[in-house]
Amino acid sequence: MGSKDLFQIGSSMFPMGVNSPVRYFKDYPFYVHHVKGSKIYDVDGNEYIDYCLAYGPSILGHADPDVVKAVKEQAENGLLYGAPAEIEIKLGDLIRRSSRNIEMMRFTNSGTEATMHAIRLARGYTGRSIVVKMEGGFHGAHDYSLIRSGSGTLTFGSPSSPGVPEEVAKTVIVGRYNDRESIRDIFDRYGDRIAALITEPIMGNAGVILPDPGFLEFLREITEKNGSLLIFDEVITGYRFAFSPYQDLIGIRPDLTTMGKIIGGGMPIGLFGGSRDLMSRVSPSGDVYQSGTFSGNPITMAAGYAALKKLQNMDYSRIRKTTEKLITGIDEILSRRKIRHVINSYVSMFQFFFAEEAHNYDQVMKADRDLYFRIFKSLMRHGVYLPPSQFETNFVSFAHSDEDIAKTLEAFDSAVGEVVG
Ligand SMILES: Cc1ncc(COP(=O)(O)O)c(C=O)c1O
Fold first, then answer.
1. pLDDT per position as a tens digit, 66-111
2. What is the rounded CA–CA span in Å between residue 49 and residue 44?
3. How many angstroms is it from 266 CA to the middle of ligand 1?
4. How many angstroms separate the CA atoms of 134 and 178, rounded?
5. Which of 209, 231, 309, 406 fits a 20 to 30 Å CA distance from 86?
6. Which of 236, 272, 393 for mutating ligand 1's site (highest number of atoms within 8 Å of CB)?
7. For ligand 1, atom 13: residue with the closest CA
8. Which residues line the pocket of ligand 1, CB cutoff 6 A?
């Protein structure tokens, strides 16, 4: 059955045929047959060079053979124990040894769970209720995140979702990334009631927005001064640029860190962690409750361990060079056609905007998202798959070859030509 037919059937049982909103795009999404390396193959017989990469986890490329082998071997010993196993310690230890600020951690099944529980821990620890987040920042699909949020909430026009109780929304104050004044105002007004400030250190859910020099240091200072915790949501950025979270590259120490995506090697995962003092408050050693039937499940642990063991020996400068080659080419193509644009990138993630500037949320919101989408569609006809929305991130994996980049640029040139003439 082809994608069109599958979509028709899928739409009768799943809202818009999908099980996560960002997977839908007009007229209907392709249905996947399989993935391998840098490629995604649909049931209609098309092959695409993939820069969506399952929204980030597949940094080694899809279906990495060592990760798949580890999953198969673990499956022979069972899928789920509901009791601790050594493989959790193996993955935890690898993360602890490569993440300066994570003394203790707890595994969850998704980034959503990780940030939700980190926020509860921050509230329990400080005895305060207010949380500060950034406009356009996305931390998963729980109530505390879905307030002037990013990712699919921007794409589909509901950054503050109906269904989040007003009482909850009142405990979340929204600040502006790269705008110290807005953060200072919030702390001036609510300082002694703020449990935590949560932010992605590099914004990845309103496209890619990089921190202005000193901004993250400023967040560290102002939270510390007010007795609030700083939470870095590194669900996207953890192990993406080096074998560590991003915070270790810039030498900033948040109180709590959340991760996900890459550390699960393609299986569902999340993690929140920090100092022994803070994490000891988590149940059952402490009183802040958190749990999960599937948390730390052996298949995810085995996949994550295999992926991180491999990543530990990878040269991240290689992926940086691949990305640079790609964005230099995109920049050249758009400049040659005199199309106004900005490309924001860091090592293995990038996004291009049809805008004057793109270093804060307001500027990104002014970008021509319709042009992005038309180029996205045209690129698909030329065998390249980007994330379907301007408000997502393009990822480059270790599996993307020079040949992939050359083919992508050829496709990009043709696609832009078709769309803008
Ligand atoms: C920064 C960030 N935090 C949290 C999440 C939620 O993670 P998950 O989709 O695994 O629940 C995402 C998802 O894209 C994310 O980008």
1. 999 999 999 999 999 999 999 999 999 999 999 999 999 999 999 9
2. 15
3. 13
4. 9
5. 231
6. 236
7. 140
8. 55, 110-112, 115, 138-140, 151, 200, 204-205, 233, 235-236, 260, 270
Over range 162-181, report the average pLDDT: 94
Neighbour count for residue 181 (Cβ, 10 Å): 9
Q: How many angstroms does the Cα of residue 374 sit away from the middle of ligand 1?
A: 26
Q: Distance between CA 392 and CA 365 in Å, rounded?
A: 13
Taking the CB of residue 317, how many other CB atoms lie within 10 A of it?
Answer: 10
Cα-to-centroid distance, 404 and ligand 1 (Å): 27
Predicted confidence (pLDDT) per residue in 23-37, tens digit: 999 999 999 999 999
Domains of the chain: 31-60+315-420 (3.90.1150.10), 65-312 (3.40.640.10)
Query: What length is written for the chain?
Result: 421
Which ranges constitute the DSSP H helices of 226-315? Answer: 246-250, 276-279, 298-312
